[in-house]
Design goal:
The chain is α+β, with helices and mostly antiparallel strands. The protein is about 30% helix and about 20% strand. It has eleven helices and 19 strands. Strands 9, 12, 15, 16, 17, 18 and 19 form a seven-stranded mixed β-sheet that branches. Strands 1-8-6-3 form a four-stranded antiparallel β-sheet, with no helix packed on it. Helix 3 runs parallel beside helix 4 (about 160-170), helix 7 (about 270-280) packs across helix 8 and helix 7 (about 270-280) packs across helix 10. The longest helix is centred in the middle third of the chain and has 18 residues, at about 245-260. It is elongated and about 80 Å long. The N and C termini lie far apart (about 70 Å). Mean pLDDT is about 80; it is low at about 85-120 and about 170-195.
Length: about 450
């Protein structure tokens, strides 16, 4: 019996998705709940599972297609068994129309089309590639086994795939079998499969190549939201600096015991999350949002923490951060970061939030003006910790200093409140015991 595979119900507020790629091809066996395809939405990657055991008979939507809930993707023949030989269509009854499997494999190898029958190594490497990486591999017709994964456990990231594509298109790389190469630059292509590399007849000038790739949905959504925030909010940024000497001393004293007790490292972010909660309690307007002609005050503290992934920036939400311990904050951040980078994060994890924190310091940023994550009204920007000479008790000393930036919606938050809010964070971080004593 034929079973149709359709796009599952997309999360609320998600209108459509892009079919990022197929994990199975027609003629291959599938098992129930096995992931068949990846759907890319504005924020998360979604799996399309197989509802039954059988054989994938036909693919109705190709990678790159825009699909909506309920659209037909493929057809599975329930209970069927895959043919022992890899074919592109229905099995032919006579040897005159179909070569034996061994002869076909030999012919494929001789013609340089070994990709028609993936090796076990290629299949294993493909399974280690994330959805975004697989898309780059497919678009550039790369051999999956030839892409080296630099991610955890040998996982192939999008950057790994892009690097492999660039190497394949560089002068001196293996060229496709053709009488000669045209003078214009060609899209990156996979090696032809021959044993010896043949240098290109007319290598392209170094540094003059171009590559056009479609913007992924997450990046497009980020661009849309950032432009929307700039157009609809009266954004302003105030700055301050904080001495992290006390936090560094506390971390150095208790980091080993903390790690042993809670199974997670004591980082800087937990101090800033807890300090932000204390400041939000004192200045509730910073935790509020503009909704039309109304102001919505939140009596809860859902803090978004920006996480950088190969697909772009994601901001998972720490719910009820005021009720979390330092260990709870660190564990939550670690779990979200792992899920975001593996593509396992859900839309619910990214929805909501009353205030956000972003740390450009991990990339070396000394100072920046972060953009508010609408409909929130403010965002805290952390930066690089840098030893600088400062005056302490009329003496010039070198201290580990960090610039802080608070971008805020001036329609709702006045400069006085923004400055005092940032000062409160400074007080809490420079004197961590304040957060424990509630003073």
């Amino acid at each position: 019996m034929s079973v149709e595979i359709r796009v599952p119900q997309l999360p609320e507020s998600v209108v459509d998705a892009t079919l990022a790629g197929w994990r199975k091809q027609p003629g291959q066996s599938v098992t129930r709940d096995e992931s068949l395809a990846d759907l890319e939405t504005d924020k998360v990657m979604l799996d399309v599972p197989a509802p039954v055991n059988g054989v994938l008979r036909e693919i109705k939507a190709q990678p790159g297609a825009t699909v909506r809930s309920g659209d037909l993707l493929a057809v599975i023949e329930e209970g069927a068994t895959a043919a022992p030989a890899v074919t592109t269509g229905a099995p032919a009854p006579a040897a005159a129309t179909t070569q034996p499997a061994a002869a076909a494999a030999a012919a494929a190898t001789a013609s340089g089309a070994a990709a028609a029958k993936p090796t076990a190594a290629a299949e294993a490497q493909a399974r280690r590639a994330g959805p975004a990486a697989r898309r780059v591999i497919e678009e550039n017709k790369l051999a999956a086994a030839a892409v080296t994964g630099a991610g955890p456990g040998g996982r192939v990231t999008r950057n790994d795939a892009l690097q492999a594509a660039a190497q394949a298109s560089a002068p001196g790389a293996l060229a496709p079998a053709a009488p000669s190469q045209p003078a214009v630059a060609q899209p990156p292509a996979a090696a032809a499969g021959s044993a010896a590399a043949v240098p290109p007849a007319q290598p392209a000038p170094a540094g003059r190549t171009e590559q056009r790739v479609p913007m992924n949905r997450l990046r497009a959504r980020i661009a849309e939201r950032m432009v929307q925030a700039q157009a609809t909010q009266a954004l302003l940024t105030t700055f301050n600096e904080v001495d992290l000497g006390a936090v560094q001393e506390l971390r150095a004293r208790y980091k080993d015991a903390f790690d042993k007790q809670h199974g997670v490292k004591l980082g800087f972010m937990s101090f800033f999350v807890k300090a932000s909660v204390e400041a939000l309690k004192r200045f509730p307007v910073v935790n509020a949002a503009v909704d039309g002609n109304d102001v919505v005050y939140h009596d809860y503290f859902d803090i978004g923490v920006a996480v950088s992934t190969e697909r772009g920036l994601m901001v998972p939400i720490l719910r009820d951060a005021d009720a979390l311990s330092f260990a709870g904050v660190e564990q939550g951040i670690a779990q979200y970061a792992a899920r975001a980078r593996s593509g396992a994060i859900t839309l619910d994890d990214l929805t909501g939030g009353t205030f956000s924190i972003t740390n450009g310091g991990i990339f070396g940023s000394l100072l920046s003006t972060p953009i508010v994550n609408a409909p929130q009204s403010a965002i805290l920007g952390m930066h690089k910790i840098q030893p600088r000479p400062v005056a302490v008790d009329a003496q010039v000393v070198v201290r580990p200093m960090m610039y802080l930036a608070l971008s805020y919606d001036h329609r709702l938050i006045d400069g006085r409140e923004a400055v005092q809010f940032l000062v409160r964070i400074k007080e809490c971080v420079e004197n961590p015991e304040r957060m424990l004593l509630g003073i």
